[in-house]
Structure formats: structure tokens, C-alpha cells
Design goal:
It is a single chain. The protein is 45% helix and 15% strand. With 426 residues, the chain is an alpha/beta fold. An eight-stranded mixed β-sheet has the order 9-8-7-10-11-14-13-12, sandwiched between helices. A seven-stranded parallel β-sheet has the order 3-2-1-4-5-6-15, with helices on both faces. Helix 2 (18-29) crosses helix 4, helix 2 (18-29) packs across helix 5 (88-95) and helix 9 (184-207) runs antiparallel to helix 16 (357-376). The protein binds 1,4-dihydronicotinamide adenine dinucleotide.
């Protein structure tokens, strides 16, 4: 639907979304999983009659997912899940689709951000697709009257799944949600390779600095941290990892990384990347120890990992020194450079395009089949967080292998029997 009030506000004065359309088509060409699912969904129309609300990073790959859901028969209302990650031209292109309304806009303030979430809920969704959990929270806190008609939903990221599990533990999650993040096809690729590649490439493009010979401090050695550390090492950086979980710290140690508390790493680092999903990971005591010119970037979901309020309190001056880089000048003259306002650097920096297309093809392939599963078998899932059925994950992996022309072996009957038996010994 074309809503002049929305498209007029976008940075596409003619409201044609032409450049956004090109970006979407380029992404589509490199998304064999979504293309295959689109063919099936287009003929089977499994989402006919459903209304889907989405809060995601509105850029080209997400647009492909949105269109695939719409072409499967759903009406879709979409908005952003981060104030800085929307590509306005892509949002405009989406908004021109007959079955899609996009409320996503780049650079919104808090009030506009939540107003857009509200606007998607005015469509009275039967399915929700979240990246970070803001739709589910808004429905439970502000619009519980919608819950009865919602079949279920899907959550894309670690932080969103954490929030849902916390709600579920408190008995406060009142409809079924798939933890899409937790599937192998998502987490082993998107969180590891996607975050690793996209965060580093965005830091490099935003700063125009090299990683070679630098010390890169990676906070958190979970899925995202592993990817960032590995790719930074691959670019000849010296990598220091900080952790709070002893086994993850040991894993990092055995991979050959230096493991230190942040208080020590702060003195060593040239570039800092937070990937914890936690708050206050880099705080005042760390800013006080950092060297002049240190670069600070966050790859975790929310902008709470670097304590920007205390950095602001410490600073005698702050200025934008390059597009997407704000320098905070300390009383002793050191400058600490924060990228993308401490928001997801791979999605919110001025040059950001998010993860590579191939990676999001996998993540969104899982999203698409999970939405279909929720619509077709809603009665099988009660309120709460649900793991994605393994056969759906395998289905998407098989499509990808097929598209890549990669063959694998199959278990013989004897092998399958052997693997499932407890009676075989020496
Ligand atoms: P994870 O749970 O696998 O890893 C987080 C790690 O951080 C854990 O090992 C934990 O022990 C550690 N940690 C927690 N507090 C810490 C602290 N104070 N200091 C040092 N380490 C600490 O989670 P995952 O999947 O790696 O996700 C991390 C964050 O990245 C989440 O917010 C997630 O939503 C987000 N994410 C971002 C993406 C992007 O595009 N940038 C893509 C996927 C996830």
C-alpha cells in the first residue's frame, strides 16, 4: 500500500523506492533459499488470510523475507527494530507493495520508534516476527487484547530470546514464540560469520583504519564474539578476549587468544568490540585506562554495552570527527572514538548494510518456514518459548546444500540402526 504520509517522510523524495527496489533485487539474486521458499509459498499460499507484524532491521535482505511472506498470502506491517538501521529507500520500496505497509524510518527518536511499533499493531496481527522482542513486549504490556487472536511468533536474536525466556519463566509470555536464533542454521552462521564479517567490515569502512598489527579487544566469547575474534585474527590483529563465563574463557584461551579482565584489556586495546548482550561492559574505570585514539564499537543488540552516559560525564568535549564516529575528549587530552552511537555497528553505522546476503538467506529461510509452521500447526504450540523443530532446520540446510551443488552422504540402514542402538559394543 502506498501511504503518502509515510513515503513523504522518507529520504526518497519521489517516493518511488527505486534505489531500494534495486537493493532488494540484488539481495534476492543471492538468496537461493528464499527463492526456493518463495516458489513454494507463491503457489501454496500457506499464509492466506494472516496478518503479520514485523519489527526488524529494514534493509534489503529483510525486505526479501517481508515480500516472501506477503507473496504467501499475508498482509504485512513492518517497522524497524533499531532507530538507525532502516534503509529509507528499501522501506519506501516495501511500502509500495500491495500487501505491505512499512512504518520504518531511519533516525527516529524514541517516541517515533515506539509510535511505529504501535502502528504495526493497529493492523491486529495474527503472527509477530521480532528481532529483539519489542513487538512481543508492546503487545503484552500495552495491547493484551490482541493476544487471543495471535497464533504465535518468531524471534530472530539472542537478546530477544533471553527476554522471552525471562517472560516465560515468570509465566508472563502468553502466546507461542519460536526461538529462531537458537537453531544451528541461524546461530552457527549468522551470529558467528555474519557478525564477525559485518562488524569488522563496518568498523574498517567507518574508520578507514587497518586491523593488522592492532590489538582488538572482543568482549564476550559467545557465538558473535567467536566470529569477531576469528575474523580479527584473520586480519592479523592481536586479539584479547574478555569473558565472565569460565568455560567460554578457557575456550578462547585454547583457541590461542589472550584472555584478560576488561580492566587490563582496556589499557591494551586499539579497537574494542562488545558482543555480550549485557549492559555496562565498558564503563568509567575502563575509559580512564584507555589509550588515546581507542575505537569503541558495539555488536550486541542494545546500545547499553558501552556506558555512554559516564563517557559523556567524563568528557570535556565531544564532536563528530567522521561520519559515524564521535570523539569524546578526556580531561587529559585523550580521545575515545565511539562508532554508530554505541548501537549495533554492523547495522547502525552510516555505511552499514548488515550481514552478508548469503548468511541472511539462511536466517530468513528459517524465519519463513517457522512462520508457516506456526500458521499451519498453531494448535501444537502452547504459550511460551519453543525450539524450532529440527526437521525445519534440516529442510533449510538441504535447500542451501542443493543450491551450492554440495553433495553429502546418507546413513545406510545399518548405520542408522547402529547409531540408535545401545546394544552394540566391542
Ligand atoms: P552468547 O550468549 O552466545 O554470548 C554472549 C557472551 O558474552 C557469553 O559467553 C557471556 O558469558 C558473555 N558475557 C556476558 N556478560 C559479559 C561481560 N560483562 N563481560 C564479558 N563477557 C560477558 O550470545 P550471542 O549469540 O553471541 O549474542 C550476543 C549479542 O549479540 C546479543 O545481544 C545478540 O542479540 C546480538 N547479536 C548481534 C548480531 C549483529 O548483527 N550484530 C547478530 C546476532 C546476535
Amino acid at each position: 500500500m502506498n501511504h503518502p504520509t509515510i513515503t513523504d517522510a522518507l529520504e526518497d523524495p519521489a517516493g518511488t523506492g527505486e534505489s531500494g527496489r534495486k537493493k532488494i533485487e540484488w539481495a534476492r539474486q543471492h538468496m537461493p533459499i528464499m527463492t526456493s521458499i518463495d516458489e513454494d509459498f507463491g503457489s501454496e499460499r500457506p499464509l492466506e488470510g494472516e496478518t503479520i507484524a514485523m519489527a526488524m532491521h529494514v534493509e534489503a535482505k529483510t525486505a526479501v523475507l517481508t515480500e516472501v511472506l506477503a507473496e504467501a498470502g499475508a498482509d504485512v506491517a513492518i517497522t524497524g527494530c533499531n532507530p538507525l538501521s532502516t534503509h529509507d529507500d528499501v522501506s519506501a520500496a516495501l511500502d509500495r507493495h500491495d500487501a505491505i505497509t512499512s512504518y520504518a524510518k531511519h533516525g527516529v527518536d524514541d517516541e517515533e520508534y515506539y509510535a511505529a511499533i504501535e502502528a504495526t499493531l493497529d493492523h491486529e496481527p495474527t503472527v509477530t516476527v521480532d528481532d529483539g522482542g519489542d513487538l512481543v513486549m508492546a503487545i503484552h504490556e500495552e495491547h493484551p487484547e490482541l493476544i487471543d487472536s495471535i497464533l504465535g511468533g518468531c524471534e530472530e536474536t539472542t537478546t530477544g530470546v533471553h527476554r522471552l525466556r525471562a517472560m516465560d519463566d515468570d509465566g508472563e509470555l502468553h502466546y507461542p514464540m519460536f526461538a529462531v536464533n537458537d537453531t544451528p542454521m541461524k546461530r552457527l552462521f549468522d551470529n558467528v560469520h555474519g557478525t564477525g564479517e559485518a562488524s569488522l567490515s563496518n568498523i574498517a569502512m567507518t574508520t578507514n583504519l587497518s586491523f593488522a598489527g592492532k590489538t582488538v579487544v572482543v568482549a564476550g566469547y559467545g557465538y558473535c564474539g567467536k566470529g569477531v575474534a576469528k575474523k580479527a585474527k584473520g586480519q592479523n590483529a592481536h586479539v584479547v578476549v574478555t569473558e565472565v563465563e569460565p568455560r567460554r574463557a578457557l575456550e578462547a584461551h585454547m583457541e590461542g587468544y589472550e584472555v584478560r579482565p576488561m580492566a587490563e584489556a582496556a589499557e591494551e586495546g586499539d579497537i574494542f568490540v562488545t558482543t555480550t548482550g549485557n549492559r555496562d561492559v565498558i564503563v568509567e574505570e575502563h575509559f580512564e585506562r584507555m589509550t588515546d585514539g581507542a575505537v569503541l564499537a558495539n555488536a550486541g543488540h542494545f546500545n547499553v554495552e558501552i556506558d555512554l552516559d559516564s563517557l559523556d560525564d567524563l568528557a570535556v568535549a565531544r564532536s563528530e570527527v567522521r561520519d559515524g564516529i564521535e570523539a569524546f575528549e578526556m580531561p587529559d587530552g585523550r580521545r575515545l572514538n565511539v562508532l554508530a552511537e554505541g548501537r549495533l555497528v554492523n547495522l547502525a553505522s552510516p555505511v552499514a548494510m548488515g550481514h552478508p546476503i548469503e548468511v541472511m538467506d539462511q536466517s530468513f529461510g528459517i524465519q519463513a518456514v517457522c512462520v508457516r509452521e506456526m500458521v499451519e500447526h498453531a494448535e501444537s504450540y502452547g504459550p511460551g518459548v519453543h525450539g524450532v523443530p529440527d526437521e525445519l532446520d534440516r529442510e533449510v540446510a538441504e535447500i542451501k546444500l542443493d543450491a551450492e551443488g554440495i553433495g553429502i552422504d546418507a546413513l545406510s540402514d545399518e548405520q542408522a540402526e547402529y547409531m540408535n542402538s545401545w546394544q552394540h559394543g566391542t
